[in-house]
Amino acid sequence: MMKTIISTVTVLLITGCASGYSTHYTPATGATPEAISANRAAPPPEMPHLEHSTQKNGDAIASEYGKQGYSVIGYSFFNSGRGESEENALQQGKKVGADLVVILNPKYTGSITKDGVQNSAAGAV
Predict the structure, then answer these.
(1) How far apart are CA 3 and CA 65, in angstroms?
(2) DSSP string, the chain
(3) pLDDT tens digit sequence for 72-112
(4) Rounded CA gap, 61 and 77, in Å?
(5) Phi, psi for 124 (deg, rounded to 5)
């Protein structure tokens, strides 16, 4: 059976109190809780494993992890002027039953100024 992966793609990070990983989570086509459970060989881990990828092509990442028995169950893609913790990505992965969370390495894309305070925006390609 296929292992489960949540491909978390961070392009820029989100502002506000809610996690960008949860606010902007999109399930993959057909990745319902029932389908994920049906394809699972074992219960999900207590906390998903976390990996970073420097790969820029989402399809290439999915293909590479597919060779290891994983399937994509969803992703998050968002912008922000503040940092987003890896813990938030792991919590979203746990919520959706992922075995693995993959974060694309963030990149600097500019600054946001609000009320005279400049914040750096970072994310992944």
Answers:
(1) 9
(2) --EEEEEE--SS---SSS-HHHHTEEEPTT--HHHHHHH-SSPPPSS-EEEEE----HHHHHHHHHTTTEEE-EEE----SS---HHHHHHHHHHHT-SEEEEEPEEEEEEEEETTEEEEEEEE-
(3) 999 988 777 677 889 999 999 999 999 999 998 766 566 66
(4) 15
(5) -120, 160
| Residue 97 to residue 47: CA distance in whole angstroms | 9
- Cα–Cα distance measured from residue 102 to residue 89, given in angstroms and rounded to the nearest whole number: 9
Residue with tokens 């809610």: 18
> 87: Cβ–Cβ under 8 A, 6 or more apart, which residues?
none
Residues 101-114: tens digit of each pLDDT: 999 876 656 666 66
